[in-house]
Amino acid sequence: IHLLDTDLVPLVPTGSTLNGIVTSECAQHLLLEGRFSGRMVLKDTSRIVIAEGAEIEAEHFEAHTIVVRGTVNGHLHAQILELGATARVKGSMQYELAFASQPGARIRASLDGPSQFDE
């Protein structure tokens, strides 16, 4: 599933800060542009986009697709994990289906791939 950024719901707009826990059992497509600290666990075909300039302290972020263009410190877990050229990630990342990183992304994190390999 590929959505345009215009299909995303801004959860944390530029200039705002949100601390806490966000969960959803149905698909959500969220845009984080400001500061967020806490946990976010979204089920189904959910997508989180961390915009350039966003600052995230991720105790645990989990969604089907996570796109990082901003700064993340913490743990990311996704089926599909994509790092844009402006991404800055410290901590740990886990993906189950696909991982992509554009030139320019900076990573100081462990990276774990699928728990089962096709052999």
What does this structure look like?
The protein has strands at 9-12, 17-24, 29-32, 35-42, 47-50, 55-68, 71-83, 88-101, 106-112. The chain is mostly beta strands. Strands 1, 2, 3, 4, 5, 6, 7, 8 and 9 form a nine-stranded parallel sheet that branches. The chain is globular and about 40 Å long. The N and C termini lie far apart (26 Å).
Strand tally: 9
Structural shape = globular
Radius of gyration: 13 Å
Intertermini distance: 26 Å
Helix content: under 10%
Residue share in β-strands: over 45%
Mean pLDDT: 93
SSE arrangement, N to C: EEEEEEEEE
Structural class of the secondary elements? mainly beta
Low-confidence stretches: none
Q: Major sheet: size, sense and barrel closure?
A: 9 strands, parallel
Helices, by number, come to: 0
Offer a concise description of the structure.
By secondary structure, the chain is mainly β.
What descriptors fit this protein?
nine-stranded parallel beta sheet; 119 residues; single chain; 64% strand; mainly beta
Topology:
Layout: E1 9-12, E2 17-24, E3 29-32, E4 35-42, E5 47-50, E6 55-68, E7 71-83, E8 88-101, E9 106-112
Parallel strand pairs: 1-3, 2-4, 3-5, 4-6, 5-6, 6-7, 7-8, 8-9
